[in-house]
Design goal:
Keywords: Membrane, Transmembrane, Transmembrane helix. This protein has eleven helices and eleven strands. By secondary structure, it is α+β, with helices and mostly antiparallel strands. The protein folds into two domains: 189 residues, no CATH class; 107 residues, Immunoglobulin-like, CATH 2.60.40. Strands 4, 6, 7, 9, 10 and 11 form a six-stranded mixed beta sheet that branches. Strands 3-5-8 form a three-stranded antiparallel beta sheet, with no helix packed on it. Helix 4 crosses helix 6 and helix 6 packs antiparallel against helix 9.
Length: 382
């Protein structure tokens, strides 16, 4: 038995397809559409970038991925900068000759102190050490008010130590002189209220909450400057410290100009006196030999323990005032010593209204005052 199935009704579908417009390759609309597609065709790199962005932005709830926490890198401090700077300066020839020609030694984090190249590492090391040396020089000048002597470094270090001791004693003495106002809180509130109200007429009549001896102003300011310089030394590797150090140097240019003017002028010096001893209460004519000694200058005397090498001053309880001053003329001076002591001469050029001159003492030349009875063969009655 044969079963026959009826054919599907394809006439309607065929008629519909035949009614549609044909696919014409030369159609202007199709050509323009293809050109637009070619213009929008992405490059390989842009396609990869979009793929990566899509992969990163894809949210998958089924898979949990822990986020990596960025651990901040600890920046090196005082000790690390000091050690790496010294090592970089010591090994700078090897670093520049061996490492600089090769590209493998370049890159972020390749060198210490956050340097990306050997040149930057060496340059930063040298700059750090120069800044530190400049700050230490400023600390020394601030304490001693003198420039260090490179020819006699031990004496310079002892002078800095003695100046520090004197400053400490002065600050301790001033701390005992500080007095609080009886109504400290009320006075402080009144000062703050006056400042907020901007009452300029009331400023002169304000009472300070703290009072101290006016002579303590100098030591307190010196201590504040010393503390500020020490803070700069601790952060010598920062750009802010370098700027502040240069600013301090600029502010001290007046002192440098004064030193240059001093060295450009004559440098008087006493090298020998004759005689080298004197009798007590004896009027004596001394022959003074030296360099650049101008007639009309003044020669005075101080005890030898007041010289710069002994660091003696009024802070140590001694009297270092210039004594027995007389005018220098024809290579001689006159003096009468009334105290048994060993003296050193000090010379000051003739007064000039345009310049401020001070005494210059010469500790290598000494004169000893004796009594007649202490000289063998000399009658005590003389």
């Amino acid at each position: 038995m044969v079963f026959r199935a009826a054919a599907p009704p394809l006439d309607d579908e065929l008629q519909e397809k035949l009614a549609r417009p044909g696919f014409n390759v030369e159609s202007h609309e199709l050509i323009e559409q293809r050109l637009e597609n070619l213009k929008r065709k992405p490059t390989v790199l842009s396609w990869l970038d979009s793929y990566v962005r899509a992969a990163e932005a894809e949210a998958d709830d089924d898979e949990w991925r822990p986020r990596r926490r960025a651990v901040p890198r600890s920046s090196p401090g005082f000790v690390a900068h000091l050690l790496w700077s010294m090592l970089g300066l010591a090994a700078s020839p090897l670093i520049l000759l061996i490492c600089s020609p090769f590209q493998r030694f370049y890159g972020p984090g390749s060198w210490p102190l956050d340097c990306a190249s050997p040149f930057r590492f060496v340059r930063k090391s040298v700059l750090n050490l120069l800044t530190l040396a400049l700050l230490l020089l400023l600390v020394y000048v601030h304490l001693t008010q003198e420039w260090p002597s490179l020819s006699n470094l031990p004496a310079s270090l002892e002078l800095a130590q003695a100046s520090t001791t004197v400053l400490r004693d002065q600050v301790v003495a001033c701390a005992h002189c500080v007095r609080l106002h009886e109504q400290f809180l009320d006075v402080t509130q009144h000062i703050l209220a006056t400042i907020v109200a901007a009452d300029h007429d009331a400023f002169p009549s304000l009472e300070p909450p703290l009072s101290m001896d006016p002579d303590c102003t100098g030591p307190v300011l010196q201590l504040a400057g010393f503390a500020g310089l020490l803070l700069l030394v601790l952060y010598f590797y920062t750009t802010t410290t370098r700027v502040l150090a240069l600013l301090i140097v600029v502010l001290r240019t007046s002192m440098v100009a004064r030193l240059v003017a001093e060295y450009a002028t004559l440098q008087p010096c006493i090298v020998r006196i004759d005689p080298t001893y004197a009798l007590l209460d004896e009027e004596l004519v001394l022959s003074v030999t030296g360099v650049d000694l101008v007639p009309g200058g003044t020669v005075a005397w101080i005890p030898y323990w007041c010289s710069a090498s002994t660091f003696a001053s009024t802070a140590f309880g001694g009297d270092c005032a210039k004594q027995f001053a007389s005018t220098f003329a024809s290579g001689t001076v006159t003096a009468t010593f009334s105290v048994l002591e060993t003296y050193i001469p000090c010379y000051k050029p003739p007064s000039d209204p345009t310049e401020a001159r001070d005494y210059r003492c010469f500790e290598t030349v000494r004169l000893r005052v004796k009594e007649a009875k202490n000289i063998p063969g000399l009658a005590p009655s003389i």
